Prior knowledge:
Layout: H1 3-8, H2 12-26, E1 41-46, H3 57-75, E2 79-81, E3 85-86, H4 91-100, H5 104-121, E4 132-133, H6 137-152, E5 156-166, E6 171-173, E7 178-179, E8 182-183, E9 191-200, H7 206-213, H8 221-231, E10 233-244, E11 256-261, E12 272-275, H9 280-288, H10 290-303, H11 306-311, E13 316-324, E14 332-338, E15 349-352, H12 358-367, E16 375-376, E17 397-398, H13 409-423, E18 426-432, E19 437-438, E20 440-441, E21 451-454, E22 458-461, H14 483-486, E23 492-494, E24 501-504, E25 508-509, H15 511-514, H16 518-521, H17 533-539, E26 544-548, H18 554-568, E27 581-584, E28 587-593, E29 599-600, E30 605-608, E31 611-614, E32 620-628, H19 639-646, H20 648-656, E33 665-666, H21 669-692, H22 705-726, H23 730-746, H24 756-771, H25 776-786, H26 803-806, E34 811-817, E35 820-827, H27 833-842, H28 844-850, E36 855-861, E37 865-870
Helix pairs in contact: 2-25, 3-20, 4-5, 7-8, 9-10, 19-20, 20-21, 21-24, 21-25, 22-23, 22-24, 23-24, 24-25
The chain binds one RNA strand through helix 8, strand 11, strand 15, helix 12 and strand 33.
Amino acid sequence: xxxxxxxxxxxxxxxxxxxxxxxxxxxxxxxxxxxxxxxxxxxxxxxxxxxxxxxxxxxxxxxxxxxxxxxxxxxxxxxxxxxxxxxxxxxxxxxxxxxxxxxxxxxxxxxxxxxxxxxxxxxxxxxxxxxxxxxxxxxxxxxxxxxxxxxxxxxxxxxxxxxxxxxxxxxxxxxxxxxxxxxxxxxxxxxxxxxxxxxxxxxxxxxxxxxxxxxxxxxxxxxxxxxxxxxxxxxxxxxxxxxxxxxxxxxxxxxxxxxxxxxxxxxxxxxxxxxxxxxxxxxxxxxxxxxxxxxxxxxxxxxxxxxxxxxxxxxxxxxxxxxxxxxxxxxxxxxxxxxxxxxxxxxxxxxxxxxxxxxxxxxxxxxxxxxxxxxxxxxxxxxxxxxxxxxxxxxxxxxxxxxxxxxxxxxxxxxxxxxxxxxxxxxxxxxxxxxxxxxxxxxxxxxxxxxxxxxxxxxxxxxxxxxxxxxxxxxxxxxxxxxxxxxxxxxxxxxxxxxxxxxxxxxxxxxxxxxxxxxxxxxxxxxxxxxxxxxxxxxxxxxxxxxxxxxxxxxxxxxxxxxxxxxxxxxxxxxxxxxxxxxxxxxxxxxxxxxxxxxxxxxxxxxxxxxxxxxxxxxxxxxxxxxxxxxxxxxxxxxxxxxxxxxxxxxxxxxxxxxxxxxxxxxxxxxxxxxxxxxxxxxxxxxxxxxxxxxxxxxxxxxxxxxxxxxxxxxxxxxxxxxxxxxxxxxxxxxxxxxxxxxxxxxxxxxxxxxxxxxxxxxxxxxxxxxxxxxxxxxxxxxxxxxxxxxxxxxxxxxxxxxxxxxxxxxxxxxxxxxxxxxxxxxxxxxxxxxxxxxxxxxxxxxxxxxxxxxxxxxxxxxxxxxxxxxx
RNA sequence: GCGAGCUUGGCGGAAUGGUAGACGCACGAGACUUAAAAUCUCGAGUCCUAAAAGGACGUGCGGGUUCGAGUCCCGCAGCUCGCACCA
Length: 872
């Protein structure tokens, strides 16, 4: 490379690592555990990654966006906490162990090292001293402490629950791992099995989790709506139906069935009672009736398959049992086991009112059960109104309903509840869809649940002084099931309470537990306690949380629950963990297939004007849909390869350009090359400013038009970029920076005019500072060239726009006739309306078209528009 | 089925009810060069029309409000996402 090249070519390879070292040396991104007084704090957090082995473009986009916010806020004078860590427990590590014989720990730590390196090459302003990995005892030991505190506070339960059991792998599967009733790995028919499991009592906070949503003003509406529905509050009544004439030999303790309903006023329209296949009463029936037993077993099998739910036909089986009606002492109704009744919701039983509920109607039609209309819609006649194929679920007037007749639904609802309460068989209740959170997993690579099971003392918490319960490393993966359970010695301990031989819990926590409090741990990542109050309370809530929409429900809800539980157990004193949430879109890419239908990697494909061909063979390639980058479609682009070719700033600039961050973007070769050209262009332009304009170039009193124009462009850009960044419109900020860059380049032509040298220096310096959040390395390089030996760009304040230069000196006014643009005129800002109107009317084209027309109205919106309304 | 969102040039997209298409990508023309790359300049919604002036049409479709609608209101279609028998 010649000396000349160093002035015209930006050598990102050396420059980027150099500035990363400078930042590190200066400790620019380091903040103390206790937020410093006298400066406002700002906590920026991106969802931490699972260490799968390679950073992908989705991460780059996520973290680039977060880094823009972090660097921008830092420049605005905030003390910014911006940490990074690893969601490091999880099944892929165990799969790697089984498939390739690598130990999960080794695999995970190697992946972390590789991904950390890529992250660091991208130059994110992260406080690396705070790095945590959830798979290290330092982290999960504190999690065990939290769990024990929750246990003491009554926020934990142990109870039996149904799980999907894979009989081949000897493991429990999540619902999404069960495909068509079969295990996703083993292909074995999945069984429903009851296991004793640990539950976190999230339902205890259901009302508060719902109410809290209202305070989350800076969350996307749709995420709030999703959570609201997930929590699922509904008002209604619970009531007991007594079993009429239980058959001989039936359990005498089971003399009634409790149901939940939101429509107690429709009780008179009842024609059957339905219970879930998993309902205890169904089990009783199945025990004496083989037909029922077969039906229940079948429902249980079907229940897990997604397909089954979608195509679900309503099916049921009459148990032969009957219940009495609370308001009609002489009437009894059949009890059915029905496949559409969920044991998980309400009481697992319902009364069917076919006229008022479509499902009940479908069921009634199928099994020929009576349908009685009880709600008369407005405008219908009671004598002729009937329900045929469509249930009426709306409001109306009660009919055929005894003492409720003539009332509105709402009044009748209240009255029905009052009557049930009077009879002592029911009451108004609020029901929640939210279930307690089962956290037990029969896995090795997770946080051990710190409990010891003793035959005499039951489940005994591991004493604090024995924490952390460390995962043993000498485990084997040569047979199915949980390696912790197979370990020869690990689980054999003595009971902390009575000292007798006892067994360790071999289940580990759901990995969602790990990510439910990491944001709090980041505030004091090396503390001996899970949190340090002053640190957690000082930094939390996270001011801006950024991540994918896929975590809209579970992760965010669990984190909100954990925060409340931690508050209740004294670990912190905030209620909502994330004050602002931003969900960014995905990174998509074209997909390619060869003639044999095999997916091809982008680097195997040559795109020409006549279509796409294979680089090696020259064969035609089919260009498929633009879709989410995924390994299976091979439409991925590796960030490290992009950094090698174009540098970190180019990669960052490209993912931030064009598409609004909340929307999906398409990664294209041309796009990233274009970003790379811009990096070089900006570098050249600023270098020419350094060469042309001396650092002491002064602002003359009589600045030339060219100089003034550039200065105004500079200050307008400051305002526009600031506004765009405040609103997350990074793509708009990028556009404004392109414009200023072009304006600066144009000014070179007027280099000799008065004040242009000053204006060019000002523009170049401003531009460097404004691009810094997106392209921090280039910003440092530019600023160092402009102002050698001064402070780092990363430490500088955000530029301020001079209001005097934001004021418009001349306005370009549109002139319309009947709302159609017919010409433009120039005007002084806030010029006398009469003069403006006169000039508008005289504009040649306007005058021509107004000829012979009668103007009935002249509209003048100062500094914006003139519109003439003419008579027709 | 329920809910949310989206729909603007060849493409990504911009636009407090006030000149639609900023900015970028791709494309075309030109300059520089022996040549290419790089770079720079210019052009470009569609049509009347090859160009200019001018005009017509134009932000998924149909209505409405308004002097004026991509933007607000009503209805419809298409696409995407989420939840999905929640009693």
